[in-house]
């Protein structure tokens, strides 16, 4: 039996235990994932976007503000609340569950938080591979 140790791009192979998709997305959710999610990306973090795993500089995402990390934000309720109550911080949220990402995108759009939050719609370990954990003021 052979073991896969690397992604086809050469990046480490990662097992993921959990759901990445639930019910079919509604039309608005599909639009948010297709149109808004790319604009809220923290940069080339995924293995597909950055197969060489080059370092990504996140310091310019929220100039003059603290950088917070929200791992596994679910539907984004807490993340949106933190963005509203802490304007001194910019937040990067990582969540692999697409339905949760779509819910969070709706909150971000409805509450006008596009300048306060960035979303990586996959495993936070991809983010850690291309940036130093020390860059985050709060996680």
Report on the biggest sheet: 3 strands, parallel
CATH superfamily of one domain: Vaccinia Virus protein VP39
Number of strands: 3
Percentage of residues assigned to helices? 25-40%
Q: What sequence of helices (H) and strands (E) makes up the elements?
A: HEHEHEH
Shape: globular
Structural class: alpha/beta
Low-confidence region ranges: none
Average per-residue pLDDT, rounded, comes to 89
Q: What is the secondary structure topology, with strand pairs?
A:
Elements: H1 27-39, E1 66-71, H2 77-85, E2 89-94, H3 98-110, E3 117-120, H4 124-130
Parallel strand pairs: 1-2, 2-3
Helix pairs in contact: 1-3
Give me a quick take on this structure.
With 139 residues, this protein is α/β, with parallel strands linked by helices. It is built from 4 helices and 3 strands. The model has no long low-confidence stretch (mean pLDDT 89).
Description:
- It is a single chain.
- The chain is α/β, with parallel strands linked by helices and 139 residues long.
- It has a domain at 27-48 and 62-135: Rossmann fold.
- Helices cover 30% and strands 12% of the residues.
- It contains 4 helices and 3 strands; from the N terminus they run αβαβαβα.
- The chain has helices spanning 27-39, 77-85, 98-110, 124-130; strands at residues 66-71, 89-94, 117-120.
- A 3-stranded parallel beta sheet has the order 1-2-3, covered by helices on one side.
- Helix 1 crosses helix 3 (98-110).
- The radius of gyration is 15 Å and the shape is globular.
- 29% of the residues are buried.
- The mean pLDDT is 89.
């Amino acid at each position: 039996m052979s073991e896969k140790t690397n992604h086809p791009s050469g990046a480490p192979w990662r097992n993921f235990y959990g759901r990445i998709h639930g019910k079919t997305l509604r039309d608005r959710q599909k639009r948010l994932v297709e149109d808004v999610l790319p604009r809220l990306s923290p940069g080339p973090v995924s293995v597909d976007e950055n197969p060489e795993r080059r370092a990504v500089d996140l310091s310019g995402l929220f100039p003059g503000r603290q950088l917070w990390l929200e791992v596994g934000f679910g539907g984004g309720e807490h993340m949106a609340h933190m963005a509203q109550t802490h304007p001194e911080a910019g937040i990067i949220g990582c969540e692999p569950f697409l339905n949760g990402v779509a819910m969070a995108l709706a909150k971000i759009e409805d509450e006008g938080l596009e300048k306060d939050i960035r979303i990586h719609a996959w495993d936070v370990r991809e983010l850690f591979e291309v940036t130093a954990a020390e860059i985050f003021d709060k996680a």
